[in-house]
């Protein structure tokens, strides 16, 4: 059997089988390009989590309609995917409750929601169906490959990164998503004037976000005097945020814009 090598930064490469069958026939591919494509430090930890019967059912029925496997092999036509709606990319939607709420509150905006978490993908598809939300598409795989290989330049009207994994240990800081390199890639995919909205309950990560975003030439702070933004009313409480608040954490929102630049 042909094998690819799955390179992990913290251990020896683990063998993975190429062309593995999806766990849910018709559902997301078990091993999208993100996990074997290249040697790179990842901002997520692959996990094989339990999927409920309802989530599995949603994955099988709805993935062919609203799902997207991140294979890194084609450039997406967002206009066709979303019928011409402006499109916001949400990276790391978790279980997707907040994503569904935002999609319901703003049906005139398409949300391309990406995560590697299978139960969450099933949950969000189920929420979209039950609430009649036709403006959500769910992508499976690494957001970096989606941004780099599959989204055209200046194609996004916004980018949301809510409560990205904080990777609190110093030796894991390199796994944090919000880094200068990521911002350069994200800026290239955002339309001029589009907003990057980050939120975190992890104070040291908030400080890092503020520092790298403020220093990045492709972004400007929407706050006239710099610093964090007041929590926008449109951002629902997310699951991860609730857990942080229960622990007494303070939440910070950061709203930065890709500048309009010269006309
Ligand atoms: C801490 S959880 C937060 C989930 C949700 N936003 C919330 O607030 O409840 C972060 C999520 O980001 C996902 N994630 C991290 N890096 C990712 C990447 N490069 N591509 C896709 N998903 C990613 C993880 O799988 C995880 O589900």
TrEMBL record:
GO terms for molecular function: tRNA (guanine(46)-N7)-methyltransferase activity. Residues 1-53 are annotated as: Disordered. The keyword Methyltransferase applies. InterPro entries: SAM-dependent_MTases_sf, tRNA_(Gua-N-7)_MeTrfase_Trmb, tRNA_methyltr_TrmB_bact. Pathway: tRNA modification; N(7)-methylguanine-tRNA biosynthesis. The keyword Transmembrane does not apply. Its EC number is 2.1.1.33. It catalyses: guanosine(46) in tRNA + S-adenosyl-L-methionine = N(7)-methylguanosine(46) in tRNA + S-adenosyl-L-homocysteine. Residues 37-50 have a biased composition (Basic residues). Substrate binds at residues 169, 201, 238-241. Keywords: Methyltransferase, S-adenosyl-L-methionine, Transferase, tRNA processing. S-adenosyl-L-methionine binds at residues 90, 115, 142, 165. Belongs to the class I-like SAM-binding methyltransferase superfamily. TrmB family. Catalyzes the formation of N(7)-methylguanine at position 46 (m7G46) in tRNA. This is tRNA (guanine-N(7)-)-methyltransferase. It comes from Streptomyces maoxianensis. The gene is trmB.
